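Comment thread on ticket #2218

A.B. wrote:
> Attaching the input chain for the structure job we discussed in standup.
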Amino acid sequence: MPAIKKRKVADEAPAPADDSDASSVSSQSGAEATNPDETAADEKPAAAPKTFKELGVIDSLCQACESLGYKAPTAIQAEAIPLALTGRDLIGLAETGSGKTAAFALPILQSLMDAPQAFFGLVLAPTRELAYQISKSFESLGSTINVRTTVIVGGMDMVPQSIALGKKPHIIVATPGRLLDHLENTKGFSLRGLKYLVMDEADRLLDMDFGPLLDRILRVLPKERRTFLFSATLSSKVESLQRASLSNPLRVSVSSSKYQTVSTLQQYFLLRPHKHKDVYLVYLLNEFIGQSAIIFTRTVHETQRVAFLLRSLGFGAIPLHGQLSQSSRLGALAKFRSRSREILVATDVAARGLDIPSVDVVLNFDLPTDSKTYIHRVGRTARAGKSGVAISFVTQYDVEIWQRIEGALSRQLPEYDAAKDEVMVLAERVGEAQRASIMEMKAFDEKKGTKGKRFGKGKRSRDEMDQEEG
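C.D. wrote:
> Ran it. Output below, let me know if you need it in another format.
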């Protein structure tokens, strides 16, 4: 394919007739992409492409990939991109950190260059952070063609969003609740000419009760479109969504099992009494000093407490949870990505979808209650071929949960070697920090005062649905 010079995408160009929208899908590792109703028996395995150009990606987008440090296509990209470029709907199943965003962004951008228009593609994401991340990926990959993207999420003023939509961006990345608000209330906004629809993290979209909203959105989208559906698992809900939104899709997968972690990830557990968790946490952070780490906790209160504890000890820790304002959440992520803070203490709001390339260590301070969440948590490190370490704290109360996680992984993980004598030297200093953190938590709770719980009982508003409750 001849090289294409840098050029600006114009809104005036005519739209394509049929090859408009796409869907993304994941399939079993090493298996060829197949129609869900067909077998792979007639397919011949091909050599894995070593470059994006071999996948059919045009030169200007290949240059963008190179500038972003994408040395070679990941497995999901190698499987999905050639099929998406043929104009077929896709279902993609892939482990977290597999490079799914580029797998659907590159075919959409390439199609956009052939027939540019406003409101060309729509990407639906379950959380605000993931929406912003996807938008940045589109902007980076489409930098050579001046692609315009807009993020439409809850927790932000609708007026600036309406103004942004009025400027007719090429790509919209949105959470379902806020998108539906604009479709119903923003004058002149319509997606009748949409060419591509992507539903990313489809299983999470459905877990968060977005199903009825997705149905309403799908009813106002054109039937002649390409659709990509990406999901970590193919549940019955996801299969129902597939039947409702995709037309004769192809399925690709790079997951060899339901619960799989990448081979470059070193996983350990640490079996210790609950009362010593804080001391062992500080010991591990000292062991990995200078490396970026995400500490996962189960509740908002514990996230805030651990952040205060670590700050008292001189660590650059920053909390991230669903009860922070949207600007605070984005600020926390920005500081962690820029390495101005090397430790992120987070609930499961950070467990899935977020691409933070420099994470070296994941510490499961509190074990998740299900194995799927464990997979997503440890998937924050060892991404895109890099190595990483994940250590899970197992107390006397967590043994059964840990056994279930090991059962899902189909293997027993080794215990991390932490000499008790060395660890307990830190006990006195950590005890002082614990007392300081208790005082800070009291002040923090008093400051919240009469604001009350952000997440009450009953039906959530659309604005609340696109945030994690962790």
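A.B. wrote:
> Thanks. Noting for the ticket: The domain at 53-253 is CATH 3.40.50.300 (Rossmann fold).
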